[in-house]
Design brief:
mainly alpha, two-stranded antiparallel sheet, 9 helices, globular, disordered C terminus, membrane
Length: 300
């Protein structure tokens, strides 16, 4: 721990960030109790999982800030939780539509637009895919594989790190760090692509459920937890972030990333409480949707 070598401003910063983490945990616990009492059991666990993403990342970042040697393990914990939350968010969109069977009936003759980010946003020539049980299975598999394989790959990297074979700064083709990072990056893109395809289809239907603010919060967690950390790590390995004894450039970059994440996840936790606690209108029954469709077909 580096707390013993901190000056007064450093101690004040550490105390403030730790207090923000504790407040985020308390806000989440209060929100979880509210969800448990007010939300139907079919949606309860998924919404609690999604709301827990920001306080869990804030907690792991706070532990890594106080105990720098634990960074590999705190990142491992946050990585596992983040991978599960991506799958849970896809399942939440399906549940908010009434479940898989109801979703298939609502979009009986509909199509998924697969030319969306982050994988195929520029490939406008890609065909639209019919909404069937098989395509829904592939979308769920796209996020589920990330929830399974990312923890396995991070666990492998920790095993190699304890043996001295995994060095994050060594990105040569002969080292395992480059290949594991590239594989995790590819799995991440496929998972985010599946969520993007589903969101693009249901965003109008679920507008009454405030799915757009919920998706925006989810995107902020993705960008801040993945892209921001990657950029800071690149700056640190290239010595753009200068060393400050007793911290090397890499350790200081990790330090900065953790402190930023604590503040950002605190804000997201507070905003999530507001967004998820609103009372939403129920979706129109399928019978009404069918009648409207029939009226539109008879009008011409």
């Amino acid at each position: 721990s580096l707390s013993a070598g901190l000056d007064l401003p450093g101690r004040f910063l550490f105390a403030t960030l730790t207090l923000m983490t504790l407040i985020a945990i308390l806000v989440f616990i209060e929100e979880a109790v509210y969800i448990y009492k007010k939300i139907p059991s079919s949606k309860r666990s998924i919404i609690i999982w999604i709301n827990a993403a920001a306080p869990v990342i804030s907690t792991t970042s706070c532990i890594g800030m106080w105990v720098p040697r634990s960074t590999m393990f705190t990142d491992f914990t946050a990585g596992i939780f983040f991978a599960i939350v991506i799958h849970k968010f896809l399942m939440m969109m399906i549940n908010e539509c009434g479940g898989q069977k109801v979703l298939l009936r609502r979009f009986e003759n509909g199509h998924f637009t697969i030319s969306t980010g982050p994988c195929c946003c520029c490939c406008l020539c890609l065909p639209r895919v019919p909404i069937t049980r098989r395509t829904l299975f592939w979308l769920k598999l796209g996020t589920f594989q990330f929830a399974v394989f990312r923890p396995v790959l991070i666990f492998l990297s920790i095993v190699l790190w304890t043996n001295g074979n995994y060095i994050l700064n060594n990105l040569s083709p002969k080292g395992p760090a480059l290949w594991i990072s590239c594989f995790i990056g590819a799995l991440t893109l496929f998972a985010l692509w599946a969520v993007g395809i589903m969101f693009r289809k249901v965003r109008i239907l679920l507008k009454c459920k405030n799915i757009i603010p919920k998706f925006a919060l989810y995107q902020f967690i993705v960008i801040l937890n993945q892209l921001q950390n990657t950029i800071i790590n690149i700056f640190a390995t290239q010595k753009i972030i200068p060393c400050a004894p007793p911290l090397s450039s890499t350790a200081r970059g990790s330090y900065i990333a953790q402190q930023l994440l604590i503040m950002e996840m605190f804000l997201i936790t507070v905003i999530s409480r507001v967004v998820y606690r609103r009372k939403y209108h129920d979706l129109e029954p399928l019978e009404c949707v069918a009648e409207e469709t029939g009226d539109k077909q008879q009008t011409p």
